[in-house]
Write a structure and sequence with these properties.
Belongs to the pseudouridine synthase TruD family. This protein is α+β, with helices and mostly antiparallel strands. Helices cover about 35% and strands about 20% of the residues. The chain has helices spanning about 10, 70-80, 110-115, 155-170, 190-200, 205-210, 220-230, 235-240, 245-260, 265, 270-275, 275-295, 330-340, 360-375, 430-440; strands at about 35-40, 60-65, 90, 100-105, 120-130, 140-150, 175, 310-315, 320-325, 345-350, 395, 400, 405-410, 415-425.
């Protein structure tokens, strides 16, 4: 393992090491949106026909947008079409500060309607029609083309660092499948702490932490109002001070002002994907810690040992967490053969009320870290808030990737070098887990 210091912000989310030993190139991401290009990989079926009939109610399109987040696009585009945003569905959300290409389906919309709508930095290409709408998860993964700028190294030095890092990644079969800072909140990684409060059954503490706990990298105006609420408990005064862009905090405060003490009700006015994210973030923090401890113990991520639990490859070639098998003396050689052929994957727990744990050294690591949290499986049923309960599952610990890297003089920043990386990742994984191995810098420079 490397001795390169990991930023405190990453330690906060359970990541305390790099898997490569080559010093990073530093630099910054997203100097402009076009520096971060994401294209979905999807074979969702459709027919090349743009005529509506009873069997093909859904118009399939490919949307290319620059500097638009998915939700903002849906609101603006559905308004321009004169339809409800619920008639537009997609396979995955995408970041705002990027160029993103993704498939979407539109219910009972014609090609002519699409051709009559024009929004800045958005292009929509009609593909055909489908019997069913595309939905969340209906993709295999994403292709990335990402430019790192503001690199102080000379081209030869940057090229040497990139080649060494790439060689280490390829030898290991990929990088640790960490959950990135986006899972926890880039400037305010509070979600896993809120999740711990919910697991402990303290909904009041959870909601006040979310509203009033201050983090050093957030704007001064939000620090000020959070401190005010923490020090005074004045919810009515606090809601007036919160900026409008913090709509979730304001919604929580307004609910508690109208219904004092109804902490569960306040959480449930948030979007479901947000209030369930708190428990998921806590599971993700623990998952990151387990991967780090595994690597520190000398175990690898691409070779199983007795006691490991592996999952098998699904029909779409992605890991299937429902198909698990424990590694023992009798099957270890066969399973390691499957790992080499990418037909099996070593897993770690996203711990919940029904998550199986490994045996042997991997199991010792898992149980030790889980015991340190003080939580037991039944705590993940969350009696005080069962709507966020999680049975848990196991997830692959190695993110298989084969990056291609190009070094050049930066045409936008004089005297600097740029690095362009291209790679593919399966759905549900984070590009920053690859980029951090090359940059080795503050994750805020990657957000």
């Amino acid at each position: 393992m490397t001795n390169i210091q990991v930023p405190d912000l990453e330690k906060e989310i359970g990541i305390n090491l790099y898997s490569t030993t080559t010093p990073g190139v530093n630099g910054i991401l997203r100097y402009r949106p076009a520096d971060f290009v994401v294209k979905e990989i999807s074979n969702y079926p459709y027919e090349e026909n743009d005529v509506i009939d009873k069997n093909r109610k859904y118009l399939m399109v490919e949307v290319t947008k620059e500097n638009w987040d998915t939700n903002h696009f849906l609101k603006a585009y559905s308004s321009a079409l004169g339809i409800s945003h619920k008639r537009i569905t997609y396979a995955g959300t995408k970041d705002k500060k990027a160029v993103t290409v993704q498939k979407m389906s539109l219910y009972d919309v014609t090609k002519e309607q699409i051709e009559n709508v024009h929004l800045k930095d958005i292009s929509v290409r009609v593909l055909g029609r489908s019997q069913q709408p595309i939905g969340l998860g209906d993709l295999e993964g994403n292709e990335f083309q990402i430019v790192i700028r503001d690199i102080d190294l000379a081209e030869t030095e940057a090229k040497d660092a990139a080649e060494k890092t790439t060689a280490e990644i390829l030898k290991a079969g990929g990088v640790p499948n960490f959950f990135g800072i986006q899972r926890f909140g880039s400037r305010r990684p509070v979600t896993h702490h809120v999740g711990a409060d919910l697991l402990a059954g303290d909904l009041e503490k959870a909601i006040m932490r979310y509203i009033s706990e201050v983090y050093p990298d957030e704007p001064e105006e939000t620090k000020e109002v959070r401190r005010y609420i923490a020090e005074t408990g004045d919810l009515k005064g606090g809601v007036l001070k919160f900026p409008d862009y913090l709509g979730h905090e304001k919604a929580l405060l307004n609910h508690l002002i109208a219904r004092p003490g109804d902490f569960k009700g306040a959480f449930m006015i948030l979007p479901k994907n947000l209030y369930t994210m708190f428990i998921h973030a806590y599971q993700s923090w623990l998952f990151n810690r387990i991967i780090c401890e595994r690597l520190k113990s000398g175990l690898t991520l691409n070779q199983a040992v007795v006691g490991d639990i592996v999952c098998y490859r699904a029909k779409d070639k992605t890991p299937d967490p429902a198909r698990l098998e424990k590694v023992d003396e009798d099957n270890i050689d066969g399973i390691n053969g499957l790992l080499k052929r990418k037909r099996a994957f070593i897993t770690a727990p996203l711990f919940g009320s029904e998550t199986p744990l490994a045996d042997g050294i991997p199991g010792e690591i898992e149980r030790k870290l889980i015991e340190e949290t003080g939580f037991k499986p039944e705590d993940f049923k969350v009696p005080a808030f069962p709507e966020v309960a999680s049975r848990g599952l196991r997830k692959e610990i190695l993110l298989e990737v084969e990056p291609r890297v190009e070094i050049a003089t930066d045409e936008l920043i004089d005297g600097k070098t740029k690095m362009t990386l291209e790679f593919k990742l399966p759905k549900g994984s984070y590009a920053t887990t690859v980029l951090r191995e090359y940059m080795k810098t503050n994750p805020l420079k990657m957000s």
